[in-house]
Request: fold
Amino acid sequence: QPYVLAGPAGAAAFSAEAVVQLWQAEQGKELVVYCSPPQLPRGRPPGCEDITPFPMLMSDEPGAAGEARPGFVPFQGQLELRGEEVLKPDEQGLARWTGNIDLIAEVELATCPGWRDSGVSEEAAAEASKKLASGRVVEIARLGLPVVEVQLLAACCGAAMPDAQIAVDGEFFGDTGMLATQVACRAKCGEHALLARHPLAMPDGIRNSLLVDSATTTCGVTMELPLKRFRFVCVAPPGARADGECMADLWLVGGDLKR
Reply:
């Protein structure tokens, strides 16, 4: 920021470096990005002596001032600004800049490896900058978990299989339906247990290892079709007689015919 130092011998103009400290903390299935003045007192809550010291919470909620919040670590991503500039913190989460401009108010996008990008509106950035100037810890953005799009595919031809139920690490995310659409699952980057259930793969379903290594991953689980479980079924229109002449559909059906 620009300053002027005046004295008996005259005045000297100089610019001081602006510094903020960026933090991240996981809350449920989101990564929350915070910003604080670097001079805020640091602390560790009881029983959390092994984590990085983080700023004491200063919020508008009654009774929250001075409360320590566990889970803070220096932000490992970067903030993209309007005008294509980037604000990237160092290993301690400190971000520096010079000039007569408040870069926090210019934040447009928050990114971090292993998480989905999060946009920041002009109103939210301006409000965060205003609270930051009053010495508070402010929330900048919330980044979501990566999305994994999963389908069950026939091993013989690669065709998508309908009515497949998809679960990751025991959490059910949906089924592919009659149209055999992809099921969107959310999981952290890393290795997970994937389970696909289908009438032709009962009772245990198909279990695979799922590796998530980007914000969006497409995964196709292949299944060998059990030919012994297929049946040809003749389907005639209502009112048709077996001894009469009529047109009928020939269906190839898998699974339990009673269902």
Confidence is low (pLDDT under 50) at residues 56-68. DSSP finds one helix and 22 strands in the chain. The radius of gyration is 29 Å.
